[in-house]
Amino acid sequence: MVDDDIFARIHGLIEEEHRLRDGEATDLDRLRQVEEQLDQCWDLLRQRRAKREFDRPASEAEVRSVDTVEHYRG
Protein backbone atom coordinates (compact mmCIF):
# COMPACT_ATOMS: atom_id res chain seq x y z
CA MET A 1 0.00 0.00 0.00
CA VAL A 2 1.30 3.46 -0.90
CA ASP A 3 0.40 6.84 0.56
CA ASP A 4 -1.98 7.61 -2.32
CA ASP A 5 -3.93 4.44 -1.54
CA ILE A 6 -4.17 5.43 2.11
CA PHE A 7 -5.33 8.95 1.18
CA ALA A 8 -7.96 7.43 -1.13
CA ARG A 9 -9.18 5.25 1.74
CA ILE A 10 -9.28 8.27 4.05
CA HIS A 11 -11.26 10.25 1.47
CA GLY A 12 -13.79 7.43 1.13
CA LEU A 13 -14.16 7.09 4.89
CA ILE A 14 -14.65 10.84 5.30
CA GLU A 15 -17.39 10.79 2.68
CA GLU A 16 -19.08 7.90 4.47
CA GLU A 17 -18.73 9.68 7.81
CA HIS A 18 -20.43 12.78 6.37
CA ARG A 19 -23.26 10.68 4.93
CA LEU A 20 -23.76 8.95 8.28
CA ARG A 21 -23.74 12.23 10.20
CA ASP A 22 -26.14 13.89 7.74
CA GLY A 23 -28.62 11.01 7.81
CA GLU A 24 -31.64 11.08 10.05
CA ALA A 25 -31.24 7.44 11.09
CA THR A 26 -27.57 7.53 12.01
CA ASP A 27 -25.99 4.12 12.44
CA LEU A 28 -23.88 4.85 15.52
CA ASP A 29 -22.04 1.52 15.38
CA ARG A 30 -20.97 2.11 11.78
CA LEU A 31 -20.03 5.72 12.57
CA ARG A 32 -17.78 4.49 15.38
CA GLN A 33 -16.17 1.95 13.03
CA VAL A 34 -15.54 4.61 10.40
CA GLU A 35 -13.95 6.93 12.97
CA GLU A 36 -11.71 4.12 14.21
CA GLN A 37 -10.66 3.23 10.67
CA LEU A 38 -9.85 6.87 9.98
CA ASP A 39 -7.65 6.97 13.08
CA GLN A 40 -5.88 3.81 11.89
CA CYS A 41 -5.27 5.31 8.45
CA TRP A 42 -3.87 8.55 9.86
CA ASP A 43 -1.67 6.56 12.23
CA LEU A 44 -0.36 4.48 9.33
CA LEU A 45 0.51 7.63 7.38
CA ARG A 46 2.35 9.05 10.40
CA GLN A 47 4.30 5.81 10.77
CA ARG A 48 5.22 5.81 7.07
CA ARG A 49 6.43 9.41 7.23
CA ALA A 50 8.49 8.70 10.35
CA LYS A 51 10.10 5.67 8.70
CA ARG A 52 11.09 7.75 5.68
CA GLU A 53 12.40 10.54 7.90
CA PHE A 54 14.81 8.07 9.50
CA ASP A 55 15.79 6.43 6.20
CA ARG A 56 13.74 3.29 6.77
CA PRO A 57 11.40 1.76 4.19
CA ALA A 58 7.88 3.13 4.58
CA SER A 59 6.65 -0.38 3.80
CA GLU A 60 7.75 -1.42 7.30
CA ALA A 61 4.82 0.54 8.75
CA GLU A 62 1.87 -1.61 9.76
CA VAL A 63 -1.77 -0.97 10.55
CA ARG A 64 -2.02 -1.03 14.31
CA SER A 65 -5.00 -2.33 16.24
CA VAL A 66 -7.91 -0.04 17.06
CA ASP A 67 -7.10 -0.45 20.75
CA THR A 68 -3.51 0.70 20.20
CA VAL A 69 -4.49 3.67 18.02
CA GLU A 70 -7.39 4.80 20.18
CA HIS A 71 -5.40 4.68 23.44
CA TYR A 72 -2.09 6.04 22.17
CA ARG A 73 -0.58 8.82 24.22
CA GLY A 74 1.94 10.91 22.29
TrEMBL record:
One Pfam family this sequence matches: DUF2630
Name the UniProt record assigns to this protein: DUF2630 family protein
Species whose genome carries this gene: Nocardioides panacisoli
